[in-house]
Amino acid sequence: IGMSILVDGKMSGPDVAKTRAPQATGISTLDAFLEAAKIDKAALAKAPPKAAAAVPPPVESEEKNPFCVLVCGGGNAAQVASAMFAYRYQTIAVSLYADEAAKWKAALGEDNYELTLDTGKTIVSKPDDITNDPSVAAKADAIVLAVPSFAHGQYFEAFAPYMKPNCVVAVMPARSGGDILFSAKLGSKAKDMIFVGFETLPWACRFTDWGKKATILGTKGSILAAVTPSEKTPLAFAVMQGLLGVFPNVAESPSNLGISLRNPGAVIHPGVMYGRWCPEKWDGNPLDDKPLFYQGVEEFSESVLLGLTGEVQLIRKKMEQLIPGLDLKDACDLKQWYMDSYAGQMTDTSSLRMCMNTNPGYKGLTHPMKDADGGKFVPDLKYRYLTEDVPTGMCFNKGLAEILGVPTPMTDKVLEWAQGCIGMSILVN
Question: Which of 2, 69, 104, 280 has its C-alpha lying 20 to 30 A from 336's C-alpha?
Fold first, then answer.
């Protein structure tokens, strides 16, 4: 190539500067190389060894490399995910709820689904099938659940006989104890699967024409996810990042226990409902107006929330004491969760209450209410804030606290009240 690089066996020729050899930038010693490459020899010597992770095999031909993803649910997020994934991959939409799958299939008919992204672009695609048949799980390389948390177990149980090894099962969001429920429903097969628990949904979205059109209003910059078993994290994250695109960035959380204890719904929803509707705050009479939910949090409700989140922190500390090396850094208290999630948006972060009161995303959101006589309103105490977030959120926290011997007086108080509202018997004596 007409260059002088190697002279007398040394990288000293006049054309070395035109190459990528370390010497081209003046590096001639190992220490200088390590500094330039940002390799910290001392830190690496102290670091524990990392387990080798399974990764996909290299591409060996130009033959088709089929990939099939199942998207579970029929709501906003499920329809958005189905349309987004179907643009590139074989995608099967699955709903086990009543006749939702048949209704969606009929609504779409021969047309394509139209998804408007928050970038302004529009995707036109169509799921390969919309069905209520769980046996399609046999085709799946990945299964994404975007259904209410009370339905997770139903899908796990239905898919269990058909799932193939190394199937990536992602739950958005996993809420609390999703990994444990997954293992319980799949039994011995769970060890061959990959569970991904997401902290939240990737997008704020809504359908504009049910079964036919949807819009992504905003995409999160990053979302936390944890993988069980942890050594499968590279494979699971490669799959999920490939499905979601550049954003949101899937950020690794060390364990699904951290995701479970971080669950804000387990604290916020039951806590605010109790703070407004417990016997000492509500006399049972209908109201003239619907009270604000987040922006209506006052001192009493804040004290309830601080009690609940403080008890979660006691659970976290106890686990970290008993299991040296267990990393639960993501199981933060509720105020820190607001700082992580809405930094720069809240106008007053001096307290938990002010974080909630001044969050613009909460503007005008009211308590779930039902119509009463005379144009008045009463609370809907069977809304998902209690029927879903108590059994699949708060009960995880209380159950683990009981195992650990951690006292939870505020959780007990809220749970005693909430179980009566939703007609369940959970906490006894």
Answer: 280
